[in-house]
Design brief:
With 93 residues, this protein is mainly alpha-helical. It has 3 helices and no strands. Helix 1 packs antiparallel against helix 2. 8% of the residues are buried.
Length: 93
Amino acid sequence: MSIFEYDEERERELIKKAEFESGKEEGLKLGKAQGIELGKAQGIELGKIQGIAALIQAFQDLGASREAALLSLKKQFSLSEEEAERQLNQFWK
């Protein structure tokens, strides 16, 4: 084969490799973006739980009632009655 001959098989291989690399790069970008979003959501949820635990502990330290803590949880964290009760049961010592 001379240098002027077209190598169709080689051309297909080069295209296939370029498409693979492009797809791989796009997949990595998408995976990274999804990972960042998941990490943010988990961080927000963890912060909320830590805040709830701190609020309950503060109410206990101040000698406040469970009912006062329950009302504050519902208001400060926009929790339903059931969720506020669940959190109180989890963190009230």
